[in-house]
Write a structure and sequence with these properties.
The protein is of the alpha/beta class and 361 residues long. The protein is built from eight helices and 15 strands. The protein has a domain at 4-76 and 102-170 and 247-354: FAD/NAD(P)-binding domain. The strands form two sheets. An eight-stranded mixed sheet has the order 3-5-4-11-12-13-10-14. Strands 1, 2, 6, 7, 8, 9 and 15 form a seven-stranded mixed sheet that branches. The structure holds flavin-adenine dinucleotide.
């Protein structure tokens, strides 16, 4: 392998692997640099994905989603058909919603293997230390590329290197695996257990993924302490130490391209502000980015078409989610207010909110 590539992608999460796959399919010579030694590990994710019809319902303008979400059944850990939202005073609201949990490490490894099959190279244990223009440095190597992609997650170093905006207002969240039998229901707990966000139970084939996210603005402790309190309250026994990460909560950053670089996935704020979900959008926008890069290299199409395209396909629901989150933050301050607003909304409107639609017409 020499050190000159058409594309250097930083990060091998769902965004990076999707970009790499589609740029490589378009004929580009692609290198992915991943700081971890093993792709997808350790798992810092709820591991939940909506089924294709739910993704289409949330992102009705996204194009040709079938091939993006053609996920092998071996990656489905447990099917889920209901979301139960628990109010601060333990009232449950049941929302029919089809999805499934996966094993996020195997899921990310699957997407990475598709990128490799398409012709991309992946280097693990390669932490990018700086990006200047089209020069990408790790501790030991310097790579040059025609296009650099920041798919390096919420605290994107590439965004800084490219002079692009970074995520603000991120929420810490932690997760672990719990032991025991669980019904095929996703539980979401709101109120003082997870101020400004929620705690969850997501059933898997064996046990469940359990976790907590909090909004710094509303919490006065560490997310790990809220997590321990949630385990006590819900009587959960976990198998390992909690693993944490930040979740962008403010929608997409204001600019996601330069003349030679792009941001995708969490690095671009491609996350649903109402529920913290980002895997489907990372994959949708990753494909758009990969195809745009291939067109840029072959036909000279400007990289700005990437932003035009993802905005056309997914921006509206992401913006609605940010507005809903801002509105909800008026109610997160007090248990009584939150309880009251949840009763007023009821399950149907809460279902709309989860699907990034306006809660009221
Ligand atoms: C606790 C938690 C639970 C979540 N649950 C869900 C869920 O159930 N469903 C859902 O849809 N979303 C969930 N999300 C959000 C989801 O995990 C992200 O939106 C998704 O992973 C975004 O994919 P990505 O490829 O953009 O970033 P990531 O998956 O974060 O991948 C970025 C990659 O870049 C690598 N990297 C970072 N910096 C460097 C560097 N300097 N050099 C080299 N490599 C680097 C990282 O190691 C990582 O592998 C959750 C998030 C958290 C924190």
């Amino acid at each position: 392998m020499n050190d000159e590539f058409d594309v250097v992608v930083v990060g091998s999460g769902p965004a990076g692997s999707s970009v790499a796959e589609h740029a490589a399919l378009g004929g580009a010579r692609v290198l992915v640099l991943e700081r971890k030694g093993a792709i997808g590990e350790p798992v810092a994710c709820g591991e939940f994905l909506p089924v294709l019809d739910e993704i289409k319902a949330t992102f009705p303008d996204a194009e040709d989603l079938e091939p993006v979400f053609d996920i092998p059944s071996s990656l489905v850990s447990r099917e889920i058909d209901l979301i139960r939202i628990m109010s601060p005073r333990s009232r449950g609201f049941d929302i029919p919603f089809l999805g499934y949990t996966t094993d996020r490490n195997r899921f990310d490894q699957h997407l990475a293997s598709k990128a490799v099959k398409a012709g991309a190279f992946i280097r693990t244990s390669s932490m990018v230390t700086s990006v200047e223009g089209t020069e990408v440095r790790t501790r030991d190597e310097v790579y040059r590329a025609k296009v650099v992609v920041g798919a390096d997650g919420p605290n994107s170093k590439v965004a800084r290197g490219l002079g692009l905006p970074r995520n603000e207002d991120m929420y810490p969240a932690v997760t672990s695996q719990a032991i025991g039998p669980f019904e095929p229901i996703m539980e979401m707990y709101f109120g003082g257990l997870a101020p400004g966000a929620y705690a969850w139970v997501l059933p898997k084939r064996d046990g469940a993924n359990v976790g907590v996210g909090v909004a710094p603005k509303f919490s006065d402790g560490r997310v790990g302490d809220y997590f321990q309190e949630f385990l006590r309250m819900r009587k959960l026994e976990v198998t390992g130490r909690p693993v944490g990460k930040y979740v962008p909560s403010n929608g997409p950053v204001s600019r996601t391209f330069t003349s030679s670089g792009l941001l995708v996935g969490d690095a671009a704020g491609h996350v649903m502000a109402v529920n913290g979900g980002g895997i489907p959008i990372a994959m949708i926008c990753g494909r758009i980015a990969g195809r745009t890069i291939a067109d840029h290299l072959v036909k000279g199409t400007p990289l700005s078409t990437y932003e035009e395209s993802w905005k056309r396909q997914v921006y509206k629901p992401l913006r609605t989610a940010v507005h809903t989150k801002m509105l909800a933050s008026l109610f997160f301050g007090g248990t009584g207010r939150l309880e009251f607003s949840m009763r007023v909304l009821g399950p149907r409107r809460m279902g709309n909110i989860l699907r990034c639609r306006p809660s009221f017409p």
